[in-house]
């Protein structure tokens, strides 16, 4: 399907989705979020795709929800349309791993979109923030919840209440991003991480993603039980036999997703 606000490239087993509204620093409007959620659903269904990278431009991953689109909306319009709710729920339902490759601004909905992905690789120019407070609102697509889980209450409150930005170095130190790389290397690093994931058994990759995500939704005891059952279950796969045999035989495993 042809999209207007994003570009989708599939190379081998990695789908690269690039947000493409340069005139608005990739601000998220309804069209972009609808297209992105469709592209992710398609990538999830595409047997060729094993990992997904979502990125923006060098200047902006995304500078937030589109303020022009939202500014005149009423409470009733926002409430009845569940503004962005359907699209973002769809994005977080993606079963295959998604890496956010963030350069420049990741603000408001942009920061929230990056946090909906499974992990964030940032360039040294990245700036994260939840500046909605400056617009007389608050984060609306998960920021108060996901940022708090990522960086803890103190920094999350600071960012949501003052609207200040967090540079890449602080974001890495605080646990919001998994690695920081020079801006010129960002795409290469994210694609290389995606390629590494694509080479694993897809069964264990999806199990790992489900288990980590479960930790946000349940108690420690339930989460550990969930992990244990998935771990046990993986012993029913050919890939477990192959992975362990390859280790013992000192060779690379040939996973077949079975
Ligand atoms: N929505 C709509 N348009 C936006 C935008 C946004 N969130 N962010 C930037 N743009 C547009 C600007 O209006 C401008 O367009 P024009 O040239 O037509 O005027 C263009 O992108 C370039 O932006 P700037 O000229 O402002 O660029 P800059 O380099 O001077 O500043 C910036 C960059 C600091 C990111 C600044 O653009 C900015 O503060 N943007 C808004 C950030 C923000 O408040 N985000 C939160 C949005 S609300 C939200 O996200 C709610 C939610 O949780 C769902």
UniProtKB/TrEMBL annotation:
It is an enzyme of class 4 (lyase). SUPFAM superfamilies: ClpP/crotonase (SSF52096). It comes from the Bacteria. Keywords: Fatty acid metabolism, Lipid metabolism, Lyase. It catalyses: a (3S)-3-hydroxyacyl-CoA = a (2E)-enoyl-CoA + H2O; a 4-saturated-(3S)-3-hydroxyacyl-CoA = a (3E)-enoyl-CoA + H2O. CDD domains: crotonase-like. GO terms for biological process: fatty acid beta-oxidation. Pfam families: ECH_1. Could possibly oxidize fatty acids using specific components. This is enoyl-CoA hydratase. It comes from Donghicola tyrosinivorans.
